[in-house]
Design a protein that fits this description.
Two copies of one chain form a homodimer.
Chain A lengths: L8 E4 L1 H5 L9 H13 L4 E6 L12 H7 L7 E5 L3 H10 L3 E7 L2 H8 L3 H17 L3 E7 L3 E2 L3 E2 L2 H13 L4 E5 L7 H12 L7 E4 L7 H11 L3 E4 L19 H10 L8 H15 L6 H5 L8
Parallel strand pairs in A: 1-10, 2-3, 3-4, 4-5, 5-8, 8-9, 9-10
Antiparallel strand pairs in A: 6-7
Helix pairs in contact in A: 2-11, 3-4, 7-8, 8-9, 10-11
């Protein structure tokens, strides 16, 4: 069996990927309490918000206020999603030190998501990346629908490899290979990520899994077997709900931590504190969470 | 990477392990409809009921009626759990051709579960196994709490190995290594099952995982990497609810099939038919199921 990494970096996307898929009633104060709590848990990379147009994602219209209200935590890198030059201007103004741009491996998904071809999306964000780097802002890139696309079905691994390579050549320091609909299984991970690894260094690859069909931790395991050390997760399993209330979307941070703790792989993040942070947000959203660790702390009377 | 098996045997435990943990309102007719539907899906090993004392498990008090009402399906092996000689007498009378006995790797769990030591439990069911074999009834053995015990914590792998070996020496043809509380992760599987494999042939090992913390499919993957080819699952993810309504317990058969299909590993079981069978039981129980494939077929209006 391959030897696994001894330590892993978790990138927390709950405040952005999570909350952008939740209802709009979360105040800036609540967001900042959530983020502060996550930082307290030991998370050192937190995607705090998005500078996408407020008309597109009204849930995160307060992006500027969120960034300016972030705790002073020198050991935490806060980032924000940026779709275009306008979003970057706001990001620069906010003082955020890291941004993320996004594209996909599927033409149809890109068309439906941002009304462009993949090539056009590169034309849009290449100058964004260059400006950001000139400002001393580091950049991550998402490759969505890297395994299966809800429209196109199976995505060619060469496409994922080529898109990832292009992102890196423009100065992006990390590519997040994303299973947007949670359809992948370990063989997909080995194959697709294996292709990506032909072109870009392992340490620049992050894996972003959804747990829609229960395969997220199996996929994390496959990624670990390849030597991947960076994994995205969302506290509480917030967001990414693809088809039904109560269904899981994003891999829950606390479920990932349970797995890593059990596997003796260091994450330096405290499980109980993450659950506590997620629970705070669950109360604000007034809903149950799909994460198992959160459920574990809710003992029921009716269970035999 | 290790090569994986091309084909897997699923042992369906929903009608027993599932229903014994559900409320008591399921009629014999409903159970038989469920079982018939599961057989139609292609499941060829189905644990149909239990001959445990009706006072202990009233949900399955109709065991005799269930066995006598089973469909004529020559390609399906139906089995029943049997705790002791009395249970075996009823099993023999019913005409069932395969039984399962159970013990645990944890003394405390065995004490609390059946009020005996592990050694005493062997003394009880060894004559049961011998009688069954004399009747031409084949026997499976469960080793519960094979990884983590809710009382004792970590379970020594040597204990699991020794208990498994003893089961085999008495004529049991398959040992189901069970993660009763769903706490295991892949390293546990590699280590514990690796120990068991020192003493008993791979083809006589089945793995029984719970998805309580989301690790079931990662554990299945680890088991496949070891060459294990038999996996237990429960349609709909019925039963095994360890701590909260809506929390997952048993690995759902349809979620396992999704994974195997995606991995190009043959199970010869149709996913949609299993979901349909589970859905029938969900309506009888008047509750939601934890299985993702069941949730997938329930599109919601409110999802972004």
């Amino acid at each position: 069996m391959p030897e696994l990494p001894e330590q892993v970096q978790i990138v927390e996307v709950g405040p952005r990927d999570g909350l952008q898929n939740e209802p709009e009633n979360v105040t800036t104060a609540h967001k900042l309490a959530f983020i502060g709590h996550l930082a307290k848990a030991g998370l050192t990379q937190i995607e705090a918000t998005s500078f996408v147009h407020p008309k597109a994602v009204p849930q995160l219209a307060d992006a500027m206020d969120v960034i300016s209200g972030l705790p002073d935590a020198s050991d935490v890198i806060f980032s924000a999603l940026v779709p275009n030059q306008k979003g970057l201007e706001r990001a620069i103004e906010s003082g955020v030190r890291r941004i993320a741009v996004f594209t996909a491996a599927s033409e149809t998904f890109t068309q439906k998501n941002i009304n462009m071809t993949i090539e056009e999306s590169f034309a849009v964000f290449q100058p964004v990346v260059e400006s950001a780097l000139r400002e001393g802002i580091s950049v991550r890139g998402y490759v969505s629908t890297a395994f299966v696309c809800p429209y196109e079905g199976e995505i060619p691994k060469e496409k994922v490899r080529d898109v990832s390579e292009r992102l890196l050549t423009m100065g992006i320091d990390e590519v997040a290979i994303s299973d947007t609909i949670g359809a992948a299984a370990p063989n997909d991970v080995l194959s697709t990520v294996g292709h990506v690894m032909e072109r870009i260094p392992t340490e620049k690859i992050a894996l972003h899994f959804h747990d829609t069909y229960g395969t997220a931790l199996a996929n994390v395991y496959a990624g670990l077997q390849l030597g991947i050390k960076t994994f995205d997760a969302s506290a509480g399993g917030l967001g990414g709900c693809p088809y039904a209330p109560g269904a899981s979307g994003n891999l829950a941070t606390e479920d990932l931590i349970y797995f890593l703790d059990r596997m003796n792989i260091r994450s330096n993040v405290d499980l109980n504190t993450v659950v506590s942070a997620a629970d705070g947000m669950a109360k604000v959203l007034d809903r149950s969470l799909s994460s198992r660790q959160w459920k574990r702390l809710r003992p029921a009377s009716g269970c035999q």
